Amino acid sequence: MSETNQNLSSAYKTILDEVAKVEPRIADATRAELTDQRGSLKLIASENYASLPVLATMGTWLSDKYAEGTVGHRFYAGCQNVDTVEDVAAEHARELFGSEYAYAQPHSGIDANLTAFWAILAHRIEQPELADLGLKNVNQMTEEQWETLRRKFGEQRLIGMSLDAGGHLTHGFRPNISGKMFHQRSYGTDPETGLLDYDAVAALAREFKPLVLVAGYSAYPRRINFAKMREIADEVGATLMVDMAHFAGLVAGKVFTGDEDPVPHADVVTTTTHKSLRGPRGGLVMATEEYAPSVDRGCPLVLGGPLSHMMAAKAVALAEARTETFRTYAQNVADNAKALAEGFLKRGARLVTGGTDNHIVLLDVSGFGLTGRQAESALLDSGVVTNRNSIPNDPNGAWYTSGIRLGTPALTSRGFGADDFDRIAELMVEVLQNTEPVTASTGKPGKAKYTIADGVADRVQSATDELLDAHPLYPGLEL
Ligand code: PLP
């Protein structure tokens, strides 16, 4: 155990003892969560384990300070320490990703995307309108001018990857505000290969002429060529926005470089900080100098006061991501995903796109005669935590699904290697081959309906326990 972990271990024990004096149920739930995370094989592609210094930075009095505004321009007095925090976070983000500008205030990925969308609208629609009218800001507009501008906001178009191809709901999906504020169309993947079809994206862009072309995904197991996306955006005059929430760690760790690195190609790049980047829950927006002034108005455009303690934790995580150790980690994440994919393929399972070249493996469980929901539950009964996910043109829809999405970032943080991931594939196939769907009339109402052959779940659970014991989470942390 490192000295840092040792010191923080006793600090956490003391903190939770103090919390227990105020509300024991919260102290208990916090301790129980550690036990659960230690004892489960976490393959959820969007989750990770932040370092103890990152976790510790979240729990401080920086949380108590209001600091609406930007560095050096706050609407509250006494923000000098928050200025330092935000400055350091932005500096690390710029230097790590090579971006011209970074904004560390968004509280989450969804907030980062909302900030980006409105910043693009402000830059592309509002600013030219103000310039035409010779005005400085919207408060100087007459009611009529304001109504004209509001109508223009509502006329704008966006294209993004469809949800069943692996896109995120903030990329124009109707139930999300992105699908309500923009006229929206989506691009899918090639029906044969499951791969992104750049010609189809270009054809859609030519026909629909979007203001915003969104690239990025939550469940697509391949890399994207952002130079090609840039060409498409340029041809139709669209702003290229890349949401790298899922693969930011692979960009930070220089696994994705050249055309696969979105930062040199996109106008605006958004991310979460808690997935493959292994930081605290939060969002980040990066942009070119051209878009920077609009992004900088995220507060009050769509955000309230920044969460200073979270920006501090982002700064610590970004500092970690600038190390050689993190580069090795990121490469291991990608290598482990390949080992996991190969483990499934050699045992006859079908993977969407036939493999992976990022951190995600998308397993099609229909070949086992199961829905994603049944597979997810049977795996959970065996100690394997995954999430069900649609596959392209999913016959089972978004609730039951036909897929299971798997990711390697979390277990790689625990030190799992390629052999461990091959073993995980073996164990998962054992569960899925020994799970039978149960017809609706005999299953329990409201539950996924399936049965697992006797002894399989217990056998797999003890095999996963062995793997977990060999790679302890936060070793030495005793609560
Ligand atoms: N963008 C992508 C691509 C995501 O996968 C996610 C989360 O799953 C988000 C945005 C939203 O992030 P958050 O949950 O922090 O709002």
UniProtKB/TrEMBL annotation:
Binding positions for (6S)-5,6,7,8-tetrahydrofolate? 163, 167-169, 289
Q: What is its main location?
A: cytoplasm
Q: Which gene encodes it?
A: glyA
State the protein's name. Answer: Serine hydroxymethyltransferase
Q: Which residues carry this modification: N6-(pyridoxal phosphate)lysine?
A: 275
Q: What is the annotated localization of this protein?
A: Cytoplasm
Q: Name one GO cellular component term.
A: cytosol
Ranges that cross the membrane: none
The species this protein belongs to is Propioniferax innocua
Keywords for the protein's UniProt record, in alphabetical order: Amino-acid biosynthesis, Cytoplasm, Methyltransferase, One-carbon metabolism, Pyridoxal phosphate, Transferase
Described purpose of this protein according to its UniProt entry: Catalyzes the reversible interconversion of serine and glycine with tetrahydrofolate (THF) serving as the one-carbon carrier. This reaction serves as the major source of one-carbon groups required for the biosynthesis of purines, thymidylate, methionine, and other important biomolecules. Also exhibits THF-independent aldolase activity toward beta-hydroxyamino acids, producing glycine and aldehydes, via a retro-aldol mechanism.
Q: Which molecular-function annotations from GO does this UniProt entry contain?
A: glycine hydroxymethyltransferase activity; methyltransferase activity; pyridoxal phosphate binding
